[in-house]
Amino acid sequence: MPTGLQRTWPNLMTQEGVRGQEWNAWSVDGGNPCEHVTVLPFTRIMAGPVDFTPGVFHFENPVIPTTRVHSTLMNQLGLFVCFYSPLQMACDLPEHYMEHPDAFRFVEQVPCDWERSLLVDGKIGDYCIFARQGRGTDDWYIGGITDEQAREVVVPLSMLEPDRTYALTLYRDGKDADWQTRPYAYEIEEKEVTTSDTLHIRMAAGGGFAATVKIQN
């Protein structure tokens, strides 16, 4: 537990102390279950930043075929917003990111530290949705992750400034996405939004979403 460490050493950026992504590569029990990542924001991460190593873009594991990441690709993007760490990383191989350059664009843009953080919605062990404002900017980043249950979620954009227009880029699960059968199915949508808009998003089983909301005027 990182209790007190940030008060004693304010230059502390992140640390482990969690059953992280690496368990999905070698654990004989098959890897972290889908609900694992929906518990951590309300438990371990409440105590301080965590080095979980998100960003898997390739889910096959020929070395241990019975073990794999229990998520869709969009769930992996959502982790960058839902899991706080000022020293973030992308844990996969460059060639795997090159297979999905449009999705990797989010990883390139998402900040590692925040001005404001809001829990939009969530239920421990089921799902969570966070909205975070980039430090020193007017831009927002929204991420959501769910357990093994697909679900429809509603995300009001009331955190945005009134009388301003934003460019939204939404990365979400495809209609037939599923962490077991179609983890790479995703869609990317771009449109203008304001504080009065509301997003209606479907998260697939083991899925999620991510969004950049950048101010235009």
Provide an overview of this structure.
With 217 residues, the protein is an alpha+beta fold. It has one domain (5-215): TIM Barrel, CATH 3.20.20.70. It has 6 helices and 8 strands; from the N terminus they run ααααααββββββββ. It has helices spanning 5-8, 23-26, 36-39, 73-82, 94-98, 101-109; strands spanning 114-123, 127-134, 140-146, 151-156, 166-173, 186-193, 198-203, 208-215. A 6-stranded antiparallel sheet has the order 1-2-3-8-5-6. It has a two-stranded antiparallel sheet with strand order 4-7. Strand 2 and strand 3 (140-146) form a beta hairpin. The longest helix has 10 residues, at 73-82. The relative contact order is 0.18.
Kindly state the mean pLDDT as a whole number?
94
Q: Beta-strand percentage?
A: 25-35%
CATH superfamily label: Aldolase class I
Distance between the termini: 43 Å
Low-confidence stretches: none
Any guess at the CATH architecture? Alpha-Beta Barrel
Q: Give the proportion of residues in helices.
A: 10-25%
Order of helices and strands: HHHHHHEEEEEEEE
Structural class: alpha+beta
Number of domains: 1
What is the fold-level CATH name, i.e. the topology?
A: TIM Barrel
